[in-house]
Write a structure and sequence with these properties.
The protein has about 325 residues and is an alpha/beta fold. It is built from ten helices and 13 strands. The strands form four sheets. A seven-stranded parallel sheet has the order 3-2-1-4-5-6-11, with helices on both faces. A two-stranded parallel ribbon has the order 7-10. Strands 8-13 form a two-stranded parallel sheet. The N and C termini lie far apart (about 45 Å). The structure holds nicotinamide-adenine-dinucleotide. The site of nicotinamide-adenine-dinucleotide has 29 residues, from helix 1, strand 2 and strand 5.
Amino acid sequence: MQRVQRAVVTGGGGFIGSHVCDRLLDSGAEVVCVDNFSTGHRSNVEHLADHPGFTLIEADVTEDLDVPGPVTLVLHLASPASLPEFARLPIETMLVGSAGTYNTLRIAQRHSARYVLASTSEVYGDPLEHPQKETYWGNVNPIGPRAVYDEAKRYAEAMTVAFRQTYGLDTGIVRIFNSYGPRMRDDGRVIPNFIAQALDEVPLLIHGDGEQTRSPCYVDDTVRGILALASSDIAHPVNIGNVEEISVLELARLAREAVGSASPFKHVDADLDDPRRRRPDISRATLELGWKPQVSFAEGLRLTVAAMRQARQGLSG
Ligand code: NAD
């Protein structure tokens, strides 16, 4: 395992990225966070402003940029990541996966740094294989409503592999499955949406029959997996996610219970191309990184509800 000395974290002002910045700084590394705050919030990294190891560069990674000083790791997390956000920013989503990946690979190349691409379970599309192993090539609609995100990430993976093959760059690819936890926005993703609806005592909107499944992974576990991959020299994609598979209907029940709300459920139209089943095979992460999730869904949900309550109090206080 290598020790990270100075990391560039693109998308470091976002949900997962800000937790990555926290953990890296805790480990003694320096962090350069690059974000244009198109979907993330400054408040996610405000607490780091006075940290001597933290630098914030407000920039768009689809434009060429360099980072002064040494760099030992580049973590490319910048990208809109929820359906409403990549529907609002379709071209930007394609560009951050294409030009953004190219530009950040070039930063790693200039500094001979390790590079880790944050990819996604969405590269498997609506999977025909279950659970999903890294060897599965996926079932993606290239012109559907999720295509800008799914195809950008598939392109980004191919670009990352091309840099490794062409220049011998030390690269890794982490395929993240639904992560949740504090600092998540109720931006259309199912868990914060249900919690927000339960807190507001309005109906919890269930898309379709609610029998579709997700495997939510608490953000601390996700970040531990990302950083384990970053500290390794593993080149092939690694799934990081929880194997606890829960239907959307059950997620709604648990979220309502955790909030202590009496909100009813309301079924609305299913999202087009919404994956029916989603569960990672994490044998690779377990065998090669010694990683597995540690936080149960009940505990993660309790922590997320508490954080969302606190954030609302902060807004109204
Ligand atoms: P997020 O939207 O909270 O964070 C993304 C950050 O990237 C934001 O702060 C945004 O402002 C920034 N960004 C977007 N475009 C940019 C650009 N062109 N230049 C600079 N900054 C830019 O999303 P997240 O949930 O934290 O996701 C982080 C990464 O992890 C994304 O790459 C996403 O695809 C991937 N991922 C997340 C999940 C999940 O469950 N959250 C699952 C799979 C993959």
